Amino acid sequence: MCGRYVMARAVGDLLADFDAELENEIALEKSWNVAPTDAVPIVLERLVDDNLKRQLHVAKWGLVPSWAKDPKGGARLINARSETLLEKPSFKKAAVARRCAVPADGYYEWKKGEGKNKQPYYVHPGDGQALVFAGLYEWWRDQSAADDDPGRWLLSMSILTADTPTAESARTRRSASVFDELTALHDRVPLPMDPETMEAWLDPREKDAAGLVDMVRSKAHDAASGWTLDPVGSAVGNVRNNSPELIEPVEGLF
Predict the structure, then answer these.
(1) Most buried of the four, 35, 42, 92, 239, by CB within 10 Å?
(2) Which residues make beta-bridge pairs with 109?
(3) Residue 55's beta-bridge partner residues?
């Protein structure tokens, strides 16, 4: 978790929503079925001539550490467990210096029934607003490519996850109900951020990675309290299917 999500906003909308700019022109297609290794938008901040710049980039979903021999292992690093990422060589340096925000509209999860039956659910904010997940990014240099090859650098990212919030942690009956549903769905969730949390998370001048991870984890319950879980059709299980119809609610199997 999470292994599929929706990101169906245009570049111009993302730039406006995040008050970000482009370092280079990017091509980005809307997707209702984002899968590992897909190209997705991320928002990051960099110091350029001592000025803080917030930028929109396109990254491969599945983090490839800078020291990796090749990018093949990135598909296994689509998620970073927030409880242990500071202990993992693949993530700990990125947590200190290369943190990002991952825009999304919602994500998919599958609930298991009897036998082989599975019901996909679309998890999203009930008010129609977008999501922002906490993420990490890395640049990987292809040593076999020439210095003037524009494809010599690969930008990749991973989404932070945590244990699913419990109903006991909820502040209202409504959010308790949501957390009960989430717990029944899966024991892990991607970590959402509110605007204030995102501001701190993105700042590259902040080096207290442990404190930032704790902050994101502590704020995630409130950020997820308004989520809605809709059963959707089985077509989302095939990565070749990609259209707005995938998120339309259907009658659940169980």
Answers:
(1) 42
(2) 121
(3) 21, 44
CA 64 → CA 17, 133, 136, distances in Å? Answer: 28, 19, 11
Residue 231's φ and ψ, nearest 5 degrees, are: -65, 135
**Cα–Cα distance for residue pair 208/97, rounded to 1 Å:** 10
Q: What pLDDT score does 250 carry? A: 96
Sign of CA pseudo-dihedral 108, 113, 116, 117: negative
What pLDDT does residue 246 have?
Answer: 98
What are residue 232's DSSP bridge partners?
249
**Nearest alpha-carbon partner for 64 in 170, 117, 124, 142:** 142
For 10, the token pair is 């245009």
pLDDT of amino acid 168: 60
In the chain (254 residues long), the average pLDDT of successive 10-residue segments reads: 90 97 92 97 95 96 94 89 96 97 97 86 93 97 85 94 73 65 87 96 97 95 90 96 98 82
- Compute CA distances 209 → 31, 93, 96, 97, 206, whole Å: 31, 9, 5, 8, 8
User: How many Å apart are CA 108 and CA 36, to the nearest integer?
Assistant: 13
Give me the half-sphere count of Cα atoms (radius 13 Å) on the Cβ side of residue 250.
14
Rounded (5°) CA angle 90-149-53: 60
Specify burial of residue 215 (Cβ count, 10 A radius: 0-12, 13-18, 19+).
Answer: middle
HSE toward the beta carbon, residue 207, CA cutoff 13 A: 1
Token pair for 58: 């396109």
Q: For tokens 């704790």, what's the residue? A: 214
DSSP summary character for residue 198: H
